[in-house]
Amino acid sequence: MPNALAYLALFAWPVVALAMFRRMAPRRALIWTLLAGYLLLPERTGVDLPLLPALDKTFIPAAAALALCWPHLRARGGLGVLRGPMGALAAIYLAGPFATALSNPDPVITGVRFMPGLNLYDAASSALTNAVLLMPYLLARRMLADEDAHRDLLTALAAAGLAYTLPALFEIRMSPQLHSWIYGFFPHAFDQQMRYGGFRPVVFLPHGLWLAMFMAMAVIAAAALWRLAPQGRRAARAAATAWLLGVLVLCKTLSATFYALAFAPLVRFAPLRWQVLAAALGGGAVLLYPMLRGADLAPTQTALELAAAVDEERAQSLGFRLGNEDVLLARANLRPFLGWGGYGRSHEYDPATGRDLTIADGRWIIVIGAFGWLGYLAEFGLLTLPLILAARRRAPVAPATAALGLILAANLVDLIPNASLTPLTWMIAGALAGRLEAERARRPT
């Protein structure tokens, strides 16, 4: 159970955000309100109110940022939620839960397990949850839509990553203890953080996988800043990139290390056009993945063989995930367009005992099972469309913008095996979407 300090940190965060907005430019304060809130506030701590989303580390930083950004947003015409193709997807993302609820009024009964049918209360609750998830996207779309803001975002990711290496190294040596010592409990299964005779660090994030993914993002950001640095500072930026990569390797997460090794050299050495195309290829592959998976065209056997070549235990883990995906995808295909809704209705259960037979790990299968293709295309369209549309443009792209595209692509690829969708993912996607929309607005008609 969370201790008093956990709740104090959570509900004091608006005061921290106010202090940042008084001392920083609005765009930098927005970045740090969301980034530091994600990295420092306690997991699985909040207050559940009727209908409303939980008041937790996702809601409170986003709400504080919205309130403190509002004077600047009002001068720019508000959030502009419904503008352009991104606005259409945002509208579907917010309204989709109502369509899902209306199509799922029937209860699901399997053995002794009873899952109720959905009603408008469930729809409103899901729509409000989606609104909270979308808030960093909408704020970044309006406040972080220029090259200077993109460079600020890269700098914040690298700086936060460097700062986070200290508690991460402590937990690598001493085991994941900081969340328990400071906030009174551990947010996940401890045994899942034990790997290769040591420990994966967690610090204040949901799981060691999430921390490793953040460190991979920091490595790519540092590599981008290394490229952008003047001649006299390149050695320091190179050392920072190497340090972050070394700590990432010690985090003992193969997938995140692979993303960093694949994308950091691109962002440091490749032409900007290649970076944009690589990011679009990654985003497009993620968007199409459920179709490829359903048609048995995804290279799952190759992935298993590569994993087995590295570590037989990782191959077994991947095989278990893929088997669960097959079962969950077959279940999702029974209600493909609007999904099954919440309460675990999209899972498969033992017909005699009602025991849950499946585990949903990847964000894609969670969304497509709960909200169908409509919900999937809305959510993943918002996240991938900025990358795909950027590749269609022939105009030069700023180095910081190209780097953010690769960071987003790495995070999106990780949404296939994991549910590592965070406020940082939404913020980066929103910043890229805003840049595209701003350039389109300046284009002569």
From TrEMBL:
Keywords: Membrane, Transmembrane, Transmembrane helix. The keyword Transcription regulation does not apply. The chain crosses the membrane at residues 6-22, 87-103, 123-140, 152-170, 209-229, 241-262, 274-292, 364-391. This is O-antigen ligase like membrane protein. It comes from Oceanicella actignis.
